[in-house]
Amino acid sequence: MIALVTGAGSGIGAAIADRLAADGHTVAVNDLSIEAAKTTVARIAAAGGTAGAYAADVSDEAAVNAMIETILEDFGAPEILVNNAGFGHQAPFVDISPDQFDRMFAVHVRGNYICTRATLPAMLEKGEGYIVNVASQLGQVGGVELVHYSGAKAAIIGMTKALAREVSDKGVRVNAVAPGPINTPLVEALSEDWKSAKRAELPLGRFGSPAEVAGTVSFLCSSDAALFVGQTLGPNSGDVML
């Protein structure tokens, strides 16, 4: 299958791209930075996989549509979409500016919507497809000084459930993953006080790795997950137990 992974130039997205390529899928690697995307593609190629690099801001509809057109020319229509693009920002609620709030929702929520809207029609026409949205456990429980981030991730969980109800009977399975703290640049950018306190809260006592999240995504994009519809799986070190 052809898989599009957004925000796959580093961190969790890069690990997901690596894993889907190892699973035998052709991977369209998206990132805001073309150089970051090319780095992931080169690693996949060195491992014997097939991938292409595509730069686009997922919140920009025209840029996403142009990217999809290029992917169609290069490989064909994506049958797997992993909406992973995102970023972190930590600040007390009263210090979050409207521009910061809007940008958080633009990338995480609007970006999810635009990328899904651009790829879903071909999946519906084929009668098969997999959409995995990368949320966060903070979208389930919230996070101090992360109101805008937590709110955006909660919106993604709600969108996942609603779209799953709409398209599951048409052959497209929609699910989400809600990782806990993962050792990525996004988490490393948070304060040391926050990270130390968070580790102490976790039953496992450690943050996860990007590869551990990628394994969950791989599962959701396989026939082994045939009964998983509108679910939010939590590779979160025990931070949230549902």
From TrEMBL:
GO molecular function, a single term: 3-oxoacyl-[acyl-carrier-protein] reductase (NADPH) activity
Superkingdom: Bacteria
Enzyme Commission designation: 1.1.1.100
GO BP terms: monocarboxylic acid metabolic process
InterPro entries the record matches: NAD(P)-bd_dom_sf (IPR036291), Sc_DH/Rdtase_CS (IPR020904), SDR (IPR050259), SDR_fam (IPR002347)
Keyword tags: Oxidoreductase
Keyword check for Membrane: no
Cited Pfam families: adh_short_C2
Keyword Oxidoreductase: yes
Gene3D superfamilies: NAD(P)-binding Rossmann-like Domain (3.40.50.720)
Family: Belongs to the short-chain dehydrogenases/reductases (SDR) family.
Protein name: 3-oxoacyl-[acyl-carrier-protein] reductase FabG
Organism: Thalassovita gelatinovora
Chain's gene name: fabG_10
